[in-house]
Amino acid sequence: MASPNQGLQIALIAAVMLALIFGVTTFLFYKQYDDQRAQAETAKNEKAAADQARADAEKANRELKRLLGVAETDDIAAISAVANDDFNRYGGASYKDEKNYRKMLAYLNNVVHEKDLALADLKKTNDDLNKQLRARAGITQPQIDTALAEAQARTKDLQAERDKFSKDRDALNSERDALASKIAAIRKEAETAVAQKDEQLNQRYTQLRYLQDMVRFKDDQITRLTKPTFETADGQIMWVSQRDRTVWINLGSADGLPNLITFSVFPADTANVANAPRKGSIEVTEIVGDHLAKARILEDLNSDPIIPGDLIHTPIWAPGERKHFAIIGFIDLDDDDRSDLKQLLSLIRLSGGVVDAYQDENGNPVGQITRETHYLIKGKEPRVGAAASRDAGAEKVWVDTYSAMEQAAKSHLVKERRLSELLAEMGYKSPTQVTRFGPGVPARQFKPQLPEGGQRASTGSVSPLFQPRKPPQSRVTGAY
Fold first, then answer.
1. What CATH number belongs to 232-314?
2. Looking at the domain that runs over 315-434, which CATH code has it been given?
3. How far is 256 from 137, CA to CA, in rounded Å?
4. For residue 246, is pLDDT > 90?
5. What is the model's pLDDT at position 479?
6. What's the whole-model pTM score?
7. d(CA 66, CA 132)
């Protein structure tokens, strides 16, 4: 167990140590405080120096801006732009890399000095020229006075001549105006007379056109009544095979016969094939020799079959001659209200014919009718408002082109034929029709078809549903 003195010793030792620690700590604190105060004083002095330097720099900046002539609020970018503009405008090409106002002022001073020297030279030259001019003026003044006197005299003479010319010109202008008035009056009378003559000429021309049309119409009537159309056969049937449905004709390569051409067949005793009824049609399938070809029978009648000696004819071809055609109107070969123009063109061309002009499927003219055109083939005549499927403008194109081509054919004396007449004379047989269904299909496609050459006949027996009916009879007899 420790004694009380030992406890006091320990406490004393602890107190001394604490005092030493406190003293050391205090010393260190005050030492750091002095260092910090010295640093703060140094920083204050440096700040004051920096503020003074900034103030001096701002003062110098303002003074520099004043010397440059810019606003105090302008920044360095604006000042650089102004300086570059001044350098480019006043400095010229004297420097490129280093640009400053001192160099520019030196350059401008040199330029002004050079201009002053040049001006002085020009002034000296001018003074010399003035001295020479004054010297010459003293010599030539008498000559100048003489020339001025002569010029004044000539001016007087010129004025007199000018006055005389003005009087003569006024007189001529008066005469010209009088003549112009007379000419205008005569021209007006002539124009009136010409207009009257033109009106009379138009009336005479209209009458002449009317009389020409009447004469042409009468000639056509007289021709039809007194000179019926006469056309001879193009060839003849040489041999027939009804079993093979083939024939042989006396036309061939020497006659210029084209392949696939169709002919109408007429009896052997036919004199005029233009008006005679045909008995069938054939189509050439093979050119065998100079005057021999093979053909297939397209149609004939069992009651009157094709036999050797029968005549053949087509309006679109003749031996050694190519017929020329023009086509107008809507072309419909199979009566289905659809254009068959391309088929007709191919049919005529394959048969050796030439198509000079035609109306295309939009009604526009293609080609031109000439004096070489033999026949004008007329399809369905267009009429404005006849087809609701076309607009009025398209219909007008059809009608106008149809009329123009028809008139051109009449002026060239081209014979006119209906499409049905041409097909009949060619012996054309329409291929089997394809029945189309849907809107716009004509009802005539669905009519019952009769056997070729046949007629409907009654069988003699009538169904009870169609027996004649009588009103019922009352079985009660009486006064009423």
1. 2.40.10.170
2. 3.40.50.10190
3. 109
4. yes
5. 37
6. 0.42
7. 54
- 266 phi, psi to nearest 5 deg: -125, 155
Angle, CA of 371, 376 and 381, to the nearest 5°: 140
Tell which residue, 239, 394, 390, 223, has the closest CA to residue 309: 239
Q: Reduced to 3 states, what is the DSSP secondary structure of residue 357?
A: strand
What gap in Å lies between CA 135 and CA 122, rounded to an integer? Answer: 20
468-478: pLDDT as tens digits: 555 555 444 44
- Answer yes or no: same fold for 232-314 and 315-434: no
User: Sign of the C-alpha dihedral, residues 366, 367, 369, 375?
Assistant: negative
200-218 mean pLDDT: 77
DSSP single-letter state for residue 334? S
> For 100-110, what is the mean pLDDT?
76
Instruction: Tell me which H or E stretch contains 140.
Output: helix 101-226
Q: Is the pLDDT of residue 116 over 80?
A: yes
Determine the Cα–Cα distance for residues 449 and 335; give it in Å rounded to an integer. 14
Question: Counting every residue, how long is the chain?
Answer: 480
**Beta strands 235-241 and 246-249: pairing type?**
antiparallel
Residue-level pLDDT at 369: 92
- Take residue 479 and report the two structure tokens written for it: 């006064």
End-to-end Cα, the chain, rounded Å: 174
Tokens of 96: 């490129």
Q: Alpha-carbon distance 262 to 246, whole Å?
A: 13
The first and second tokens of residue 293, run together, are 């070809």
Rounded-to-integer distance, Cα 442 and Cα 381, Å: 18
d(CA 195, CA 371): 36
| pLDDT for 221 | 60
What DSSP line would sit under 283-309, residue for residue?
Answer: EEEEEEETTEEEEEEEEE-SSS---TT
CA-to-CA separations, 382 to 296, 397, 406, in angstroms, rounded: 36, 10, 12
Q: What is the 3-state secondary structure (H, E, C) of 153-217?
A: HHHHHHHHHHHHHHHHHHHHHHHHHHHHHHHHHHHHHHHHHHHHHHHHHHHHHHHHHHHHHHHHH
**Residue found by looking up tokens 């001192």 in the block:** 102
Q: Return the SS3 of 327.
A: strand
Contact 424, 281 (CB under 8 A): no
- The domain ranges of the chain are 13-74, 232-314, 315-434
Single-letter amino acid code for the residue at 201: L
- Report d(CA 258, CA 322) in Å as an integer: 11
